[in-house]
TrEMBL record:
The keyword rRNA processing does not apply. It comes from Gottschalkia purinilytica (Clostridium purinilyticum). GO terms for molecular function: 3'(2'),5'-bisphosphate nucleotidase activity; nucleic acid binding. This is Bifunctional oligoribonuclease and PAP phosphatase NrnA. Transmembrane segments: none annotated. It comes from the Bacteria. Its EC number is 3.1.-.-, 3.1.3.7. InterPro entries: DDH_dom, DHH_sf, DHHA1_dom, Oligoribo/pAp-PDE_c-di-AMP_PDE. Keywords: Hydrolase. Residues 21-161 form the DDH domain.
Length: 323
């Protein structure tokens, strides 16, 4: 991996130096890794280069990341002409959440990611499927560039690594991941505070939604498949937002018998966002790509444009074929 950086690091720095309007962005439905990586790379480059690099996401930032320096994350003006776009944690360009016209006007793209389904849409692609997280890839890149980390930047990178590895529980956690986490701790990050902010601040609305989900949980195929449908009415009843559904799929995956967990979320009329998780042997990224989504073998997602009952039927059919 580091050899790969060796050859591209100068290209990246040269491209940044010679471009005017530069944006660092990640996917809609932002998570710890997307927010951690854009802040980690963006703040680092802004610190050492005499450039004004914009950091942006085309979506709202979930409240549990408010302890990070998110004031540096802006929105993007869709009339802006971008000279250089650096995408992080973004498996395909559609995940940025922009219209095609806008994307076609971007002059140069550097794509930095770790998803197996990455489509290599960039002019430069740094995609490491073996990295636990995009934050891990960014750490390696900053190290290769000899850019030192501040406590704030180290905190952002740690957040991405911690959230994408399920707190160092998933198989994507390598010895290198632990070594990097250790180096981040050396920078003086406050691990107690990070974990409290990330994992011990579930709102009442989120908790009610979890209860409602568990009341509606269906277990199929000898309890190997767990599935929950969340309708707009349920979100309203629990006074919760769509973002509050984020960790429900992980919760139901953790039932002992479950191999595949699926949550369907009615985000709009005939627009159903689907989250998939597996535990040991099913590759859910293959299921997600059948619906033009993507992700990782054990965590992926897609959108189905139909009513929630039809969406459930379609995704269940594919899950039962795969299991
Ligand atoms: P989540 O279920 O937490 O939204 O997403 C799980 C994983 O799948 C994440 O790595 C996320 O980036 C990826 N993912 C979720 N939805 C989509 C999608 O619509 N397209 C692609 N390419 N990846 C997705
Ligand atoms: Mn990620």
């Amino acid at each position: 991996m580091n050899n790969m950086f060796n050859s591209v690091k100068n290209d990246i720095l040269e491209k940044i130096k010679t471009s005017d309007k530069i944006y660092i962005m990640s996917h809609i439905d932002p998570d710890g890794d997307s927010i951690g990586s854009i802040l980690g790379l963006g703040l680092s480059l802004n610190r050492i280069l005499n450039k004004d690099i914009n950091i942006a996401v085309n979506d709202d930032i979930p409240s549990n990341f408010e302890f990070l320096p998110i004031k540096h994350i802006g929105k993007i003006n869709s009339n802006d002409k971008i000279d250089l776009l650096i995408t992080l944690d973004c498996a395909d360009i559609g995940r940025l959440g922009f219209e095609e016209d806008f994307l076609n006007n971007i002059k140069y793209i550097i794509n930095i990611d770790h998803h197996v389904t990455n489509t290599n849409f960039g002019d430069i692609n740094i995609v490491n499927h073996n990295a636990s997280s995009t934050c891990e890839v960014v750490y390696e890149l900053l190290e290769e560039m000899n850019i030192g980390l501040t406590v704030d930047i180290a905190t952002c990178l740690y957040v991405g690594i911690s959230t994408d590895t399920g707190s160092f529980k998933y198989g994507n956690t390598s010895s290198r991941t632990h070594l990097i986490a250790s180096n981040l701790l050396e920078k003086g990050i406050d691990i107690g505070k990070i974990n409290t902010e990330l994992y011990q601040k579930r709102s009442v609305g989120r908790t009610k939604l979890l209860m409602e989900s568990l009341n509606n949980l269906e277990l199929l195929n000898n309890d190997k498949v767990a599935i929950v449908s969340l309708t707009s009415d349920m979100f309203d009843r629990c006074n919760s937002s769509k973002k509050d559904a984020d960790s429900i799929v992980d919760f139901i995956r953790d039932i002992s018998t479950v191999e595949v967990a699926c949550v369907l979320k009615e985000v709009d009329y005939e627009k159903i966002k689907i989250s998939l998780r597996s535990k040991e042997y099913v590759d859910v990224s293959k299921i997600a790509t059948e619906f033009e989504g993507g992700g990782h073998s054990k965590a992926s997602g897609c959108t189905i444009f139909s009513n929630i009952e039809e969406a459930k039927e379609k995704i269940l059919k594919k899950i039962l074929e795969a299991i």
